[in-house]
Design brief:
Layout (H helix, E strand, L loop, with lengths): L4 H23 L4 H17 L1 H12 L4 H19 L7 E5 L4 E7 L2 E5 L5 H14 L3 E5 L5 H17 L7 E3 L5 H9 L5 E4 L3 H8 L5 E2 L6 E5 L5 H13 L9 E7 L3 H10 L2 E3 L2 H11 L15 H8 L9 E5 L17 E7 L2 H13 L4 E7 L3 H10 L2 E6 L3 H5 L32 E7 L17 H24 L2 H4 L2 H16 L1
Parallel strand pairs: 3-4, 3-6, 4-5, 6-7, 8-9, 8-13, 9-12, 10-11, 11-12, 13-14
Antiparallel strand pairs: 1-2, 2-15
Pfam families: Aldedh (PF00171)
Organism: Fictibacillus macauensis ZFHKF-1
InterPro entries: Acetaldehyde_DH_acetylating (IPR013357), Ald_DH/histidinol_DH (IPR016161), Ald_DH_C (IPR016163), Ald_DH_N (IPR016162), Aldehyde_DH_dom (IPR015590)
Length: 511
């Protein structure tokens, strides 16, 4: 007997949520030591399988580079664990004897984890660790094109958790994901918070589900090489970042902006590192490959190598090509090279100075990256401060690969694969989302001072006062009627003139 795929998916989701709720109720009673043992077991198991999961992800999705996905899995397991292992998430967090306030940790409950096709295993590991550390359960909805590798990652985490004493069902998933099941998961009455990583439509659905949600916006990241920068080092960072996993991290640079004084140096260094600059004819072919419709990215180029993308466009490039770059002067949905491209493809802009670079960066961010990140290469701290004050981004990454710096691999930002964009990008936070976002704090507050509250005195209006007020109101209405009767047609349509005439009449009567 054949079963409807959507119905099967919905039932799987409901079963997983029910099991997660029951497991979380038990897990919420665990001590800090018990929780920490489970979290460490998950991190160790996931780290040990980093390479295996990387291979599965590339085989299933056809996106990215195995060695780079292995690094992502290592960051998502070991680095995330190291950043959260000492965070207290159980019981009393702190007692402020002076202020007489006590803070107590409270888990959210059941987390809905939405996982993207671009980072399917590392995201699942990361979200599991921060959810479980905060004493939550988590239910995953994988991307249909990455369901097997995502579920394998979740299974590795679940098995390790159960061996360490966690109740069965604490980590769950939908094995036959559909859009309907994902939407219903986010709206399920027993789901308490959503961790959404994916396309803008899915993130909007998370925010409109009626549940608290941590989502992320797109990252059309500009990279500005300012005239005082170490050009060789800057280009090296940009190439390393953009070629990492073929640009699938949303914080990877999308456009290069270079001061005119150092343009030739930058171009030369890019070519030395395997970048291929398209001529006008090749650029036109590439534009339709990047974006067949204005403002819409062709998903077939996401996470693909520059050789594969060039072949799609009917362009012949050297076998050692690392990046495809086109000179550009415009920004807009009608300019394919200026939109977010999760692939090793760049727009190259020339700025006369930092003021023009600021303007270009703003235009690029407004096109689809407000609130996310900006990469800045400079040795001038005043330039850094200017950009920090003026750019609508949550992360300004200085002299580091943007993709790796934003997720905390090459900076001291919190290791995370959910990068908030703040209100610039319509998100609830501008932080790198981590465990502290996944539990609440009760506060016990003792009285510390007394306030004298005046006794309320009821005021009454007697019958005589009411009659006087009514009589006054009737008199005013009579005067207004007289004035309107005498007013010319032109004056009748002039409220200011009528007001003056009424005021003058009242003044005469008062005398």
């Amino acid at each position: 007997m054949a079963f409807d795929h959507d119905l099967v998916s919905l039932q799987e989701m409901r079963n997983a949520v029910q099991q997660a709720k029951e497991a979380q109720e038990i897990f919420s009673t665990f001590t800090q030591e018990q929780v920490d043992a489970v979290v460490q077991a998950i991190a160790d198991a996931a780290y040990a399988q980093s390479l295996h999961l990387a291979k599965l992800a590339v085989e299933e999705t056809g996106l990215g580079v195995v060695a780079h996905k292995e690094i992502k899995n290592q960051v998502g397991s070991k680095d995330v664990y190291e950043s959260i292992k000492d965070v207290r998430t159980v019981g009393i967090l702190q007692e402020d004897q002076r202020q007489k306030v006590i803070e107590v940790a409270v888990p959210y409950g059941v987390v809905a984890g939405i996982v993207p096709v671009t980072n399917p295993t590392s995201t699942a590991i990361f979200k599991t660790l921060i959810a479980v550390k905060a004493r939550n359960a988590i239910v995953f909805s994988p991307h249909p094109s990455a369901k097997n590798c995502t579920i394998t990652a979740a299974e590795i985490c679940a098995e390790a958790a159960e061996k360490a004493g966690a109740p069965k069902g604490l980590i769950g998933w939908i094995s036959s994901p559909t859009m309907e099941a994902t939407q219903q998961l986010m709206k399920h009455r027993d789901v308490n918070v959503i961790l959404a990583t994916g396309g803008s439509g899915l993130v909007r659905a998370a925010y409109s589900s009626g549940k608290p949600a941590f989502g992320v916006g797109p990252g059309n990241v500009p990279a500005y090489i300012e005239k005082t920068a170490n050009v060789k080092a800057a280009v090296g960072h940009i190439v390393d970042s953009k070629t990492f996993d073929y640009g699938t991290i949303c914080a990877s640079e999308q456009s290069i902006i270079v001061d005119k004084n150092i343009k030739e140096m930058a171009v030369r260094e890019l070519k030395n590192r395997g970048a291929y600059f398209l001529n006008d004819e090749e650029k036109k072919k590439m534009e339709t490959t990047i974006s067949p419709l204005p403002g819409k990215l062709n998903p077939k180029i996401v996470g693909k190598s520059p050789l594969v993308i060039a072949k799609m466009a009917g362009i012949s490039v050297p076998s050692e090509t690392t990046l495809l770059i086109a000179f550009e002067t415009e920004v807009g949905k009608h300019v394919p090279f200026s939109i977010e491209k999760l692939a090793p493809v760049f727009a190259f802009y020339t700025a006369s100075d930092s003021v023009e670079a600021l303007d270009l960066s703003n235009q690029l961010l407004a096109l689809g990256g407000r609130g996310h990140s900006l990469a800045l290469h400079t040795s001038d701290d005043e330039i850094v401060k200017t950009f920090a004050l003026k750019m609508p981004v949550s992360r300004l990454l200085v002299n580091t690969p943007s993709a790796l710096g934003a997720v905390g691999a090459t900076t001291n930002l919190k290791p995370s694969f959910t990068l908030g964009c703040g209100t610039y990008g319509g998100n609830v936070t501008s932080d790198n989302v981590t465990v502290t976002h996944l539990f609440m704090k009760k506060r016990v507050a003792y009285g510390t001072r007394d306030i004298v509250v005046e006794k309320a005195v009821e005021t009454t209006v007697n019958d005589e006062q009411q009659e006087t007020q009514l009589a006054t109101d009737d008199s005013i209405q009579a005067i207004v009627a007289q004035v309107l009767a005498k007013a010319s047609p032109e004056m009748a349509n002039d409220p200011v003139a009528i007001k003056k005439l009424v005021s003058a009449t009242l003044a005469k009567q008062s005398h």
